[in-house]
Amino acid sequence: MIYNLIATNKNQWLASDSCTIKSLINYIRSVGFLRDTQIEAIETYLFLKIVGQNKPLYQLFNEGFFLNNENLSNIALTAEARNYLETNISARSLFEFTRIKKNSTETLLPELEKFIIANPSALDYQKIFKDIFYGIDYSDYIFSLPLGAGQTFLMASFIYLDLYFAQLEPENKLFAHNFIILVPSGLKSSIVPSLKSIEKFDPVWLLPKPAASEIKKILSFEVLDQPKSAKKSNRAKNPNAQKVNQHLSGGNPFGLVFVVNAEKVILDRLDLSDQLKLIEHSEDEKDRQANELRNIIGKLPNLQIHIDEVHHAAKDDIKLRQVVTKWNANGTINSVLGYSGTPYLSSADDIVINNDLKLRFAQITNTVYYYSLLKGVQSFLKKPKVKKAEKLSSLQIIQKGVEEFKELYWNKVYNNGTIAKLGIYCGSINRLETEVFPFLINTLKIDANDILKYHKGNKQFKLPKENELEWNLLDTPFSKKKIVLLVQVGKEGWDCKSLTGIVLSQSGDCPKNMVLQTSCRCLRQVDKGVDESALIWLSEDNANTLDGQLQEEQQTSIAELNSIGRKAGEQILERFSRMEHLQLPEVDFYQLKVNYKTLVIEDHLDTTANLSAVFSSLKKLMNSAVITESGFDPGQDKTRTFIHQIGDDSANFNNWLLEISKESFFTISLSQLKKHSHILKSIFDKITYSNNGSLFFNDLYNQQLIKTKVRLSFSIKRDIESETETIEENANLLLIENLQSIPFSEKVYPSQKDVNDIIRYDNTKLSISELENEITKENDRRKAAFEASKPSGLFAQIAPDLVPPLNNVVKIKEKTFHYLPYNFSQSGFEKNILTETFTLSHFKNKNLEIYYNGDRFLTSFKIKCFAKLVKSWHYIGEYTPDFLIIERMKNKIYRALIIETKGKLYAEDKTFQKKKYFVESEFLKQNNDKFGYKRFDFLYLEEIPDFNSNLSTLNNKIFEFFY
């Protein structure tokens, strides 16, 4: 988001006479070890350090650091707005910020730009910037490089650079003296070993001698991973805290680098309480140990914090920020640096500006440097070949993946002596042990010595200790394992460069939100300067997920990655637009637009009365539970025991209030809740019970419904009223700028030869009948010439060389193919519908045309769909029709039959069913009413064994609609 803006300013500085790091950057480039992306990140870091004075991003924006000083005279502004922007630096900065280019046609925040122009003095600009950058008062920058780009060495570079400049200027607070690297808890086993490679970083790659070697001597590297108390101690002490304290006891520490597990050590035993303040439990020794380490780390002077895989922050992010903020209050924090290959939020962040306007950010906003996966694959990563398996079982996909890996890489040895490996992810330990491993051994005849099983074990299956050793040796020449079977490990942070293939054969082999990270495990570069490749086999659902994540997070696709990573000789098909040749007009149609209005039902709000009503209704919200005891004899007495309390969820009043506030998206603050703490405590006491001195929620109450009723007690009753209007739109069936080459596939139609023939015949500007006449004339000429030559002899030509007649595909070229070729990789059913439509008598006789519209990236004919909920319309998403059969009149589309094709599996999708209903009911009615005749109709065809039945249905629909 802001990284392009920062890059522009950084490049201007690097090119200026005032730049103080030119010789340093030239040295790094001349050594040639660090990649371009690492050097660019270093330039960005030093720019923000030196020129930006290591200030928080919100402060830099409020001070006008990134101002481009646009000429306001060239922008349509009121005199009031222009005057305000010219005199208020923060407002000017935010205005220019809203106008940052999001892509070639869109700006970043157009609605906020309009609001500023209309109401320049209505906003608190400084607060908005602080909210955008998470309200942080210290420098917090994120660097996003793809997997395999060398984030660990970049981390080391930042550490060495700060120590280098800190040695030159010991009193300059811009540069850190000590460092801590925080690792997400779930990734400790895979990330910490790779972080230890910082010790192996050669500073000569970054700094000239003797400065490099001097700093190397100063640096002291410690991994804080001791789980137990110190031995022979009079009182329990955190051994990790002792490590830190030993360095602190010598006076002013310098060059300390600590690696620590964030949750287990730093965030252990912390809870969030009122208004997100931290409370520390202190009832046992573990609490004192955890608190001891937190406390002593906070005393490290001029401390820089590095957070690896920062996108994992999620829940712990709140805790972590609170801990860092507490340290920052001591004046010890220099800056916080985060690293992530995917700087996108799992759900978008909303920043409320006022009742009418809120900002939404899908990307982590403080990302100051970004290098895409696509650029990495183009530059230095292995070139992937991604295989999407359709209609195959999980074991069949594994078989295909193993067979191709054996063909391509089984005997592959890299220059460093490591051998290529295939990672097969399994959803569970039981599946790995009882299905996948036996399948490899018994069916595929893989030698067990070539396979490594790696998981954490369960009650039934334990792994020998040797497997852990083998896992740690995988990326060394000592390992002879060629297939690695994994469960719940190796999804990210696993640095195994010799991993050359991945198999995800079914949904659940890895978490859905981690398909991209897991698939890319095998892309790390091994040998520099060598064109390396990798193999990725995916089930259909995993491939679809990967394509979606590539599109959303990397603005690329599997097809584009495959085109980069193709093998020599692999056929890539160019695609061509025929829009100009066909003179295909736009589709004129009407979209439903829904405007929402909130209606206030109540005149005033009486929260106390509402909460009292909730308390009174608690009995109705309680379920009854009964245990009936009897024997087998029907005449035997029965005993019924009624249960009044059950449940094992711990209850805490303050935490309960916080949950209510959070579930209201903080529209109800804790302070509001506490004003009614008396009645709320009565409700809380009623729905909880005490057992052995501990408090639990009573599961016989509908706890979620009660919290909902409490939240509603703080809200005036409102209703949503929707107003609808129909908006005229014009859609192109081809967005030419999105038309890119694709890999060859059997489902591409028509063939390359037919594509070439169609393009060649298009250039003649002749109709089909004229072409056939010309071919007939040419063949008559060739026959006459052949007869006149009277060929003779053993090898004489026995027949004239004639121009072949037009085949059926070329003959239909004026009725379809607005671009070439169509790609039916999603469904062979679609291809069959297209090809067989031309055999239908009613289609032939009416001079109709049919165009494929199913590629949503290539068309703008998409229908916005809504569902009616009681009184208002609810938006459910866009629908992209598969085909349009059109009839022209005066080169305008007069009628259009929308055709949807679906396989049985997808036909039952509930969202699709809602969209289908909207199109069949509302869309057709609104459009046909607007045009005054039956302009659109809709036909749904589901894939069934009897294909002729579908063709008959289509033929009848064409007659019904067009005749």
Please tell me the total number of domains: 5
Compute the number of helices.
36
- The strand count comes to 35
Q: Can you list the strand order of the major beta sheet? A: 3-4-2-7-8-1-11
Q: What is the average per-residue confidence, as pLDDT, rounded to a whole number? A: 84
CATH architectural category of the largest domain: 3-Layer(aba) Sandwich
Q: The biggest beta sheet, please?
A: 7 strands, parallel
Which structural class should the secondary elements be placed in? alpha/beta
Low-confidence stretches: 229-236, 281-288, 311-316
- Which superfamily, in CATH terms, is the homologous superfamily of the largest domain? Tandem AAA-ATPase domain
Hey, roughly how much beta strand do the residues contain? 15-25%
Give the % helix: 25-40%
What gyration radius follows from the Cα positions, in whole Å? 34 Å
Distance between the termini: 54 Å
Any idea what the shape is? globular
CATH class category name of the largest domain: Alpha Beta
* CATH topology descriptor of the largest domain: Rossmann fold
